Records
---
Amino acid sequence: MTPAPLVLDGLVVGAMLFALGLVGILARRNLIVMFLSAELMLQGVSVSLVSWSRHHGDWGGQMLVIFVLTVAACEAAVALVFVLQAFARTGRLDSAAWQSLRESNLPRVVDHELPASDAEALQFPRLTPAGVQPEIDEDEALEREHV
Amino acid sequence: MSPDGGLSIVGTVLAVAVGCAAASLWLLLPRGESGLRERAARRFGMLLGAVALGLFVATGHRLGGVGEEATFLVVSLVAVIGAAATIVTRSPVYSAIWFALALAGVAGVLLVLGAQFLGVATIVVYAGAILVMFLFVLMLAQPTGMASYDRVSNEPLLSAVAGAVLLGLLTLFIGRLSAGPPSCCAVPTKAAALAGANRPTDESDEADAASEPAAADTPNTPALAGTPSAAAGSSPTTHRPSPPDMLARDHVARLGGELFGRHLLAVEAAGVLLLVALIGSIAIVSRTPPEERLEARPRRASA
C-alpha cells in the first residue's frame, strides 16, 4: 500500500517548514523572530498531519490541526505578553539579554566586532523642492497637523 | 523515487540538495558582517538556495505534473521560500510579513491536500489574528534603527547544519515510505482492524479495535452515532474511503459533524484553554514591575 499521490510531497513540504523553523529558533536572537520560527514549526506539523489525514482517508489529522490552531492562538497570547514584559525590563528583544539564566558551566555570549552601524542605510528618493512656499492658513494647519 | 536502483542516485541528489540548503542558510543568516561582503554572501546564498530547491523538486518525480500537482508545486514553493525568508530577514517586521507569505503558501498546500476548512482557518486565525498581534508587539517594542541582535545569529553554521541534517533524515524516511511497504506504525493497526472487521466471529471483541477506522469509513453517519457499537454495526463494509471523499461538497459539514461528535470533549477543553490563556495573559500584563509599583501606590491612595 503505497501512499496516495501528493501525500509524500505534503510530508516533504512539512519537513522543510519544520526544519526551517528549527534553524530559525536556534539561530536568531530576536525573541519575536524566534517565536515566528516556532509558529513555522507548527505549520510544518500541520501540513504533515493533513497529509496523513489524506493518506488514511479519515478526519483525525484535520481534527488535530484544528486543535493545533487553538493552542497556537493561546500560546501566542501568553508568550507575547511575556515578550512584552521582558522588553519592559531590559529594553531589548534580545534573547541574550537573559543569559544570566544560563547554566553555570556555559560560556557567556559576547558580541564581538559588530559593525558600528548598518552600512547600507535606507535611501529613499526625495523630491526637489520647487516653486514658492505656499501661504499656510493657521486654522487649516491646526486641523491638518499631520499633513 | 523509483523503488529500486534509483534510490542511490536520489540519495546522492538529496545529499547535495541538503548541503546546498545548509550552505545557503548559513550564508543568508545574519552574521554580523556589513557592506559589500554581506551583500555578496547574501546573493550567493540565494543562488545556492535556488539550486537546493531545484534539486529537491528534481528528486520528487511526481512534482511538476499538471493540474493539482502543478498547483501544489507552486504553493509549496511559496510556502518554503516565505519560510526561509522569515528566518533570514534582518528586520523583524519584514520577517513577520514574509511569515504572512509563508502562511498563504501553507494555506494553499492545505487546500490542495483536501482540507478546505483548515486552509481558510489558517488564513483567518494566523494571518488575521496572530500575525497582527505580532506586528502590534513589534510596533510597541521595536527600538528605532536596526538592533545589534538582529544582525548577529547564535551559531549560524551549527544551526544551519542541524536543520539540514534533520531535513535530510526526514526526507530519506519519507522517500522510503514510497519505496517499499511502509513500516510505519499506523499501517499494521489499520490492517489488523480491517482484518477484524472482515471476520464475522467474536464481534464484541473486535468492535473496539475496529471502531476508529470504521467510524472513519462512514463519514455519512450522524454526528452523535460515533459510539463504538453503533459505528461498527452500521458499517460492516471494509473499503477505505478514497481521498476524493474528503473533497466532497459537504466537506465542512462532515468536518463539523466529526468535530462536535467524537471530539466534543476536546472542543470543550479547547474552550477552557482559550479562556485560561485570556485570563492569564491579562493577569500577567497588568502586573507592573516592582519599581513602578512603588510609584503607583501613593497615586492610587490619593485617587
Note: The first helix of chain A runs from residue 7 to 27.
---
Amino acid sequence: MMPTIEISKKDFFNLIGKKLSNKELEEDLMLVKGELESVEGDVLKIEIADTNRPDLWSTEGIAREIRTKYKKSKGISFEKLKSSGLTVKVNKNLQKIRPMTVCAVIRNLKATPEVLSQLIQLQEKVCETFGNKRREAAIGVYDLHKIKGPIDYKAFKPNDIKFIPLEFTKKLNLNQILRMHPKGKEYAHLLEGCTKYPIFIDSAGEVLSMPPVINSDYTGKVTEKTRDVFIECSGFSLKYLMPALNIIVTALVDRGGQLETVEVVYSNKKIITPNLKLKKIKVDWKYIEKRMGLSIGKKKIVELLKQANYSIKDKGNVLELEYSSIRQDIMHPVDVVEDVTIRYGYNNIEPRSPELITEQKMNKINSFSKEIANILVGANSQEILSYTLINKNNLIKKMNLKKMKVIEVDNPVSKNWSVFRTGITPCLMEFLSKNTNKEYPQQIFEIGEVVLFDKNAETRTKNPTRVAWAKAGKTSDFTEAKQVLDFLMRTLGLDYSIEETKHDSFIKGRVGRVFVKNKAVAYIGEINPEVLSNFGIDMPVCTFELNLTNILNEV
Amino acid sequence: MDINNLLAKLHSFERKALPNITKEIILSELAKKSSLKEIEATRAIQWLYNKKLVEIKSETKELISLDVNGKKYVNEGLPERRFLQAASRESNINEIQKLANLETDEVNICIGSLKKKAAIDVEKDGGLKIKLTDQGGKLLEKEFLEEQFLKKDFPITASELSSEEKFSFDNLIKRKKILKKETKKIKKVTITKLGKEVLKKGVSENDYIDRLTHEMLKKGSWKGKQFRSYDVSINVPKIFAGKRQPYSEFIEKVREKVVSMGFVEMNGPIIELELYNFDALYQPQNHPARTWSATYKIKEPKTGSLPEKKILQAIKSAHENGGSTGSTGWKYEWSEKIASQLVPRAHDTAISPRFLAKRVKIPGKYFSLVRCYRPDVIDSTHAVEFNQLGGFVVGKDLSFRDLLGLLKDFTIEMTGAKEVKFFPDYFPFTEPSVQISAKHPEFGWMELAGAGVFRPEMTEPLGIKEPVIAWGFGIDRLAMLKLGIEDIRDLFSQKLDFLRFCKKVL
C-alpha cells in the first residue's frame, strides 16, 4: 500500500526555504513520486507512490529532495560521529524472540509540535510499511534524561516485571498489557508463542519499553520539553534495522539535532550504531544516456546527480557516486538512471515512437471466439458476461451435482466469488434466475475460460475456452437447442454426432454428448426441473455447452 | 383530415368499436358489445382517440366483484341458508353440519350470522342445540339481504350501493373470499362530432383490405379493392434480437486495435505459479503484496512444477545478490518452495516472463488482455475479478524515451485524448517507472497506464540482454468511460434489460 503523508505547509516551506503555489508544489512533488491528495488549510496530504523509499515518508524526507532544486546542494559527506557514552547490552536469551537492536542518541532537539508530529508519523510509516507492521522493525523514542545507562535489552517472564504503559496510570504485568492496552491487543500476535517477552530496562530498574508493542509512560513519552532523546530499533535483521534507524535520525538531524552513537554489545560482538557511512555505486554516464534515450551530456548528468543528493567523483566515462545510507532502494545503475530522469523531468522528454517491424497476431482462440459470438448473435441470442469466480453452491448443489473437484479460493472476500467455474452453464442459470421478471423467451450465451484440474500441467490446471448457450421460454426444448447447435456446427463446417448420455443437471433421456471426430466436445439437453426450481426459474430451459479449444483445430 | 381518408385508415378493431360508442360507454362494456377482447378494445379507442373520433375519460372506481367463495355460493347457496334449512329438521349441531354439508369454520359463521338475524336460539345442553325462532321460520321462505346482493350483476361500483346493499356488502366482505374490492381505472368513451360524421359515412368492414394474404394474391381477389391505410407513426412492440455484450465487444475491439499496432497476443494460465506472478518479476518473497490480503490463495493444489533449473538458479541469484546483473539484489534467502506455490493470476504482467523466457522474437511487441484476481473491497470501482491489458516491446536500442512514445501513441489510440502527462511512479520490476494520465474533456486528468523499463534483474535471468519496455492499462476504467457505466460491476451486468436496451458503442 502506498503511504499517505500528512505535512504542514508552513513547516515544509521553512525546510525548503521557499514558498510554493499549489501548482508548483504538484510539479515538485514529482521529484518524490508524490501526488497531492488534498489541501486543507495548512495541512497537505501527499501520497507517495514509492513503497521502497521510506526515506521519503516525512516532511524532512520530501523537503530533502525538493530543496536541492532551489538551493545548491552542498554535496553529501560522511562525518565521524561523537559517542554518547551510552551502552546497550543485548542478552542472549532474546535469541528466538527478537534478538537484534540498533540505537542512537540525538541531543539539542527543538521539539516543536511539527517536529514531534512528523517524528511520530515517520516512525509509524517506517514500522508499518517498511517494517512489515512492526514485525521486521519497531522503533522506540525516549527522553534521555530519564534513563540511567547502561541499558539492558533482555527477555523477561510476563509475571516477573511490571510497568506503566504509555497513556496508562497503573502498573501492569506484561500479559496484562497485551490483554488490556490497545497497542497490546494490536501487536500481541507478534509475540505469540514466546514464554518470555523482550524488555528495554535501565540500570536503575526503570522499564523503557516492551518492543515491538509499547513504551513505558515514564521514559517513553517525548514532549515539547524534551531536549535529548534515546532511540532504539528492534527486530531480527540489520538489513531492516539499519535503514530504519538511519531514516529516523537523518530526519532529526535535518531538524538541527546532534547525532551521537550508542555502543550495542552482543554476546559475541560489539557494534557502534548508527552507521551512516555513505554507500557507493559506479555508473557509466553513457549508460545513463542510453537508458534514457537522450544525449544530454556528462555535464548535465553530473548537475542532475548533485540535485539528487549524490557526491560525484568523475573518473572519465565512469562516475563514482556516493549517497546517503538511507537510500536503501539503490541496487543497480538503473536506479541512478531513474533519479537522473526524474530530475530531468519526464515531461521535458520528447516522446519517440519506437519504429520496429513486427508481426501482428491475435491469439487463435480469441479470434475464434469472436466468430462464434457473431454466429450466435445471428441465431438471435443475447451475449452475456459473467465472472469466472462463482458461488460453489451454484456450481454444484443447485446444478443437482454431487461431488466435483474444483479450484477453491482459500481467502474469498465473499462466498459469491469463492470457486473457479468448471463450466459456464451455471453462470447462465444464475443469470436467468436474476431475470425471471423480464420478457421471455430469453435466449443467451457466454464465451469464456473455465478452470479444470490437470495433474500433468505445470500449474495443475488448464483453461479451455467454452461457449454455453441457453434458451428459457415456453417452447424451450431439446429440438430448439439442437437447432441452434446444428446451425453453429453447419456454419463452421463441422460434422458431429450426438449420443444419449447421463447427466444429473438434465432431464433423463433428454441429454446428449456431442462428438466431433470421436472427440466429446459438448453436452446438450433440457435442464432438469429440479435444477430450475433450485434457481427459481419457472420456464423450461434448454442448453448446450461446447468446448471451443477442442474444436479449434478441426475447423 | 378528409373523412374518406380517415375512413381508409380505420383498423378493423376501430370499425367494430365505433358504432357502439353512440353514447358514453365504459371500456369493458364496449369490448363486450363489439365482440373484441379487452386489449383490442383498448387499442381501438386509443387509435380512435388519436384520430380525434372519440374522447376518453379516465376515472378511478372501486369495483366490487365475486371472489372464489362468492362464485361458489351463487351456485350452492350461502352456508347460512343451508344451515337454516337443516336446522328446521335437526337440532343437534353435528347433525345439522352433516345435513347441510358444512365445514366447521363455516358452522361458526352461520351461527353468528343467524343469531344476528334473530333466526335461531342456541342452547347448551350437553352438546350445542339449535332452535329456530319465529323469525327463523319466516326466513325459511324469504331471501336474505346478502342473497339478494349476490344476485347482482358483478362487477358493481362501490359508490353506487344503496344503504341495504351497503349493509350486505359490509357483512360479506368480512367473510373469507366471498367478495373482493379493487380500485380500477375505468375508461369512459364518448364520440366526437367528427366521429359522428365518420359513422354517418358507414364503417362497415368489408370495403377495405386489412392484411394482404397469400390467398388474395393467388386468386387476385385484391384487385379493385382499397387497402386500409396505416398510421405509420404508430408504436410497435419491441423485439429483442441477437446482440453482443457491450463490454465483451469492447475488449474484442481493444484486442484488434493493439494487434493492428504490430503486437502479438500472449496468453497464460489463470492459476499461476508464484514464480511467474512474483519472483520472475523481481518481487522479493517478503514483499507486502505477496501476503495474504492482496493476493488470492487456493486450497488445492498448493504447488505446481517449476521450470528448468537454469532459470530458477538465475532468478534465485538475482534476488539474493544480483547474480550477474550488476545489482546488489534484495539480500535475502530465496525459497524455491514459495516460488512453486499456485495463485490466481494477480496481474497480467505474470504472462510476460513466461514469454520472455521462451518464445519471444527480438525485436518484438507482445501483449495480453486477461482476467486477473485480487481480494479487494467490492464497491463501484473495485472488483475481485477484472481485466488488465499489458505487454512489452523488446528491441536492441530501446530506451525510456521510446517507452514514453509508445505510451503516448497508445493513449491517443485508446482514448482519443489530445493531451497527456507523465508522472514518476514505482513498480518493483521496472526502473525508471512512469504513469501516464490523459486529459478527458469532462473528467479532467485521468490515470490510465503504468509502465517502465523492465529491470535487468528481471530480464537477464530470463536470458534477455536487450532492453524491454513494458506497460499496463487499466482497461476496466476505460471501458466504463466508453460505455457510460458508473459501477464496475455493471461491466459484467446481470440485468437482461440493460443488455437488451444498451446502445452499441462504435
Note: Residues 4-70 of chain A form a domain with the Phenylalanyl-tRNA Synthetase; Chain B, domain 1 fold (CATH 3.30.56.10).
